[in-house]
Amino acid sequence: MKKICMIASIVAASFHASGAMAEDALKIGLTGALTGPVAGTYAPAVEGLRLYVDALNAGGGINGAMVELILQDDGAEPSRAAANAKRFITQDNVVMMINASLSSTFAPSIAETSRAGVPLMFAASACPQEVFPPANANLFCTTAFGAKYDSHAALQFIEGQAGSDIKIGFQAMAIPLSRGEIDYAEGVAASMGMTPVAKEITPPPAPDYSPFASNISDAGAEWVWSWAPWGAQVKTFEALRRLGWSGSYVAYAHLEAESELARVHDETFYLVGANALFTENLPVMQTITAAAQAAGSSYAANQLTEGWIAGMVIEAALKAASDPGDAGSVRDAMSNLTVDLQGLRGGPLVWTETNHFRTTQSYRVYRWNAANNAIETVQDWTSFDVE
Amino acid sequence: MQFAVNILVLASIYALIASGYVLIYRVSRVLNLAHGELMMFGAYLLVTTAAGLSSSPVVAILLALAMSLMVGGLVYLFLMRRMTGEMALAAVLTTVALGILLRGLILMFWSASPQHPRDTLGWENPVLMLPGDARISLFAALLVASTILVYAGLFAFLRFSRWGMRMRAAGQNPLLAAQRGINLHAVFALAWALSTFTGAIAGMLIALDSGLDSTMVMIGLKAFPAALVGGLDSLLGALIGALIIAAAEVGVIKYVDPLLADVIPFAVLVVMLVIRPWGLFGTREELDRV
Amino acid sequence: MSKPLPNASGHFRRSHADEFRLIETGFSRTMLALFIIALVSFPFLFSSFYVDLAAQVFLASIGALSLMLLTGIAGQISLGHAGLIAAGAFTAGILFKEFALPFWVTIPAAALVGAGIGVLFGLPSLRLRGLYLAVSTLALHFIVVFLGGEYETRRGFSTGILIDPPVVFGYEVYSTRAWYFTLAVAAAVTLWICINLMRSRSGRAWKSIHANETVAEAIGIGVTRYKLLAFVVSSSMTAVAGALFAYYRGFVSIEAFSLYLTIQYVAMIIIGGMGSLLGALLGAVFVTLFPYIIEALVSVLPGADRLAGSVFAFNYAAFGIVMILFLVFEPQGLVGIWRRIRDYFVLWPFRFKAMGGRK
Prior knowledge:
The complex is a heterotrimer of chains A (387), B (290) and C (359). Helices cover 72% and strands 3% of the residues of chain B. With 290 residues, chain B is an all-alpha fold. In chain B, α3 (57-78) packs antiparallel against α9 and α6 packs antiparallel against α9 (184-210). Chain B is globular. In chain C, a hairpin with a 2-residue loop joins β2 and β3 (171-172).
């Protein structure tokens, strides 16, 4: 008992110490998978968001009020995500909560924030069904990739390149999200007249991807569409090439895309993505690069896009809110928001009353061009209306 | 033919990793659940030495290997030595704690981004053609070769060298071995060092072949059924066990359902535990000693 | 001896009935009453963040107690704990989602499923001991997780199954405070069952199997039966904990039941102190609160801001270090520390126990 009291008082004291620092700052809580095997997908995005908020505060914050970003690790565990959410809401009185973690943490985050009426924004984590029209009033998503639209974009691209009389293979990872999307894509491909010949679902880490790749190659697939975390996508592709497979491979352009395209340098390795790559060298990209260098970030600037976009959206939402210190007011502002993403995506991010994903989702297709020794845009922004 | 090559490569990966489990278990009866992390640590050491010594790749690799040999010895001297004589479960849990520590350190020093030491070293990974239209990448072939070399080396070491004999003696009967003047702590430290060394070879070759990120530790755990099916205290068993598990896994991926790839090693393990709990080549009386 | 000697000096058992009392002295009665008052007033004094933490501790206690019964008392090492929790959670989730069954059906159903799986987990124990048993339960863990994942994907619940808050006596258990009390009662009931099991025939049988199986068999204990019983009892309690977890978090997803969860529970019973129910409770408190304590301590360290990007990696590494320190320097666990403190007060002004006293 004594021990418990002691521990409780230590915890209480230190939480109070950390909580009392900035009383009038606008607080935003983020729960993310910052440690554990999946951290590679989320940690860089969180770093990008952190750098954006630092820059925002250095420039005077929101009408003079500082933005305090409270980061909490959940290690992709639902229980810790729930505890983090509870902490943000009851201790810190955040005006917005952000989830940058695995889908298993969604349900507790949603439950806690909905009850408290605090808007929940998904950044870098997969967009849940509830943000698509008709959207849940409380949930928002800035993440580039969007289930179903990604597959439509990829399959349309394949159709445009090779027609629909092709044999197509699929690759997913053995997590429900990825499998669900690939199952969906298989149906769409069949309805487009393509012949699905193989569907390989790889375990989260396979020591060797060759056995899976052999199946795709043996089935005679001419094209492959892969929608999974980066490692599974690229390792399956590399295994296919090692087997002498000469088809074309389309995968989703996750945040590793830019450095990996240059590493893989294969001309028929296509990446479909919603974020612009840094080869464009837009002013905003120079800003990100400078911020990353100044902070001595351990991640390449081109991996920070996702977090930077989330930062832009947060700034816009807080500026648009009539009372940025009130969660309800921030949520109302988010339900009717247009954010100019300065070229980081194919267009502005628009949220309406019923659509908290974005009204238009645009995709580009990239590949490596060996002749120029550079990344090449194979297909410029192609837009899909989100209804 | 490709089918056979796939089995061979996977079996080599499992065998190389499993040798680490066996070395430690055989000598000190400790199950090292941090083996996956130690193996990953070795691979990350290569990332660092490769960045520092990109002009002389071979030196970088040798340096990283020497460092992992040292890490293994240090882990025993500073940590596991204190756990000798404790409950088996406590020793196993200590290795789990060590694994957590290593994962944290790796994340702190190398971040969570995927690493590609082969590119840093400036090496290509060409595909070699084999008879029967089968293909294998250079580093996968090197992995198979290293597995053969490591096992041949270990067999020779345990059979003929003085320290190898001491290791066998300590494994058979620690009390008698100690009374004959064998320094048990030195033997155990050597086992840990060798185990980390072979694990690091596996980690580095996998990293050189297909890149490195924090999911590698789960591969370490997947090799564990191989060690058990063959018998936890038998090197030959680990080799055969790895072959069985790899054949089952690749076979299931090809003919049944790739989804079962993660389950099948453990299913084989369960079957083995029912028929012959001590494994194909394990010693039977080991059962009561844990 | 069915029960250790009382924990107070100057108190002696005078009748047979004294041997059966749970609470023996006035002092312990007072302490218990104070403890209960503290527990009841806790959620009204602290913010819901702390109440939620306490609720997590209660939930963890149930799992830790049942694992302690199996591993610490009966000596059967299991690494399938997360699989069992998953089985309980999925039983509740599936029954709720597919058949819309209420709380008071799904919880006993989870207990039944747990008991069934307990037999399955227990069967290898008839042939295997120690490490080999641990590995076979580990294999079963992977099989349960595989089945759960298949169910989720095949039925299209890819981000997990959502479960509505349970209704108990017409009252919806939803608020943190309500859950605090529900889980506190569940933990107390589990503790009560465990204490009584320990004092009964089966508890004594388990202890003797743990001490020496051959001797246990020789003195007429049905080793097979009691081993299976240990698995069945422990597994059904664990499955109930899983079902409660499902309701408490309002959803079930297979990703929540990784091997890391098993490791956490094993850490609870070892850090708490093997073979002691109090140890299981202390371990549950420690392991649940530990990440928060580390985080709080790190954040007050000078220069914590500079760590910013890697602070979580640092927390993670620190968790490993503290666990190692515990295992190396306090093999008796938290309960060992507790006993030393208590003995100090019980024996005061003397420093050492009389010969032949309790251990």
